Amino acid sequence: MGDESTVSPKDRFLTVYGRKPVLEALADDGLRVDKVILADTARGPGAAEIQRAAKEAGVAVQRASAHRVKVLAGNGKQDQGVLADVVAPRMRALEAALSDRHPPSRVLLLDGITTPANVGMILRTATAAGLDGVIVPRRGVAALDPMVVKASAGVAFRAPVLRCGSAREAAEMLTEAGYGLYALSATSKTTIFEFDLPQRAAFVLGGETAGVGTEVGELVTEWVSIPMPGDVESLNVSAAAAVLSFELVRRAR
């Protein structure tokens, strides 16, 4: 993986913003906060409380312009002049994971999922199912922000998140590394309960409206379906991810 100093902060931390989320992160003994960044315009009891909590937790507080805090938070309205970088111990670059001596055998690839609640629930489900990784591209997918953390009930901090630029980039890397690339399709006659599972497999979960994008779709090894005897066209993507994840658990047992 190389010298840790060369790794992008986006591959090491989850950033939370706003007074309450930052205070909660500082108070959680199970989390390690790398730093707190406070806007130089932040004054009064709220800012004092943040500084006091950070001092008690042994976390450095850096001052920055209000504009800089907004840029770092990626949110123009709700940062309240403060953010914290929380160490995500299982988060790393996809490239590093694939070059590992023991690369992940079962991973999910998020493609165009823009609803934070869905991303958060998928991270929670995949972690519960013991999957080796969830690939969350930096482009085209909801940012890993407090809404995602909340939807995951805090599990996002310790989820096996793998980062890369785009879903297409991930699909190319996985294909080159010898992974079978599978995607869900309601029309496929092959179901998730019966397809042949190779030693290394990646499962693409498409966006809420468009599904799996064309750029990734053209690299898919096989399309598989979730059989639905009831009169329902499709499942929410996070529900589909849960069915798929625990089918993988069943097979492993």
Short recap of the structure:
The chain is α/β, with parallel strands linked by helices and 253 residues long. The protein has helices at 19-27, 44-57, 66-73, 94-98, 116-128, 146-151, 167-176, 214-217, 237-252; strands at residues 13-17, 33-39, 60-64, 82-87, 92-93, 106-111, 133-137, 161-164, 180-184, 201-206, 222-224.
| CA-based gyration radius | 19 Å
Number of strands: 11
Strand content: 15-25%
Order of helices and strands: EHEHEHEEHEHEHEHEEHEH
Q: What's the total helix number?
A: 9
Give the overall shape: elongated
Cα end-to-end separation: 32 Å
Helicity, in percent? 25-40%
Stretches with pLDDT under 50, minimum 5 residues: 1-5
Widest beta sheet: strand line-up: 5-8-7-6-10-9-11
- Biggest β-sheet strands, sense, barrel: 7 strands, parallel
| Structural class computed from helices and strand pairing | alpha/beta
Mean pLDDT: 91
Question: Which labels suit this protein?
Answer:
253 residues, seven-stranded parallel beta sheet, 34% helix, alpha/beta, disordered N terminus, elongated
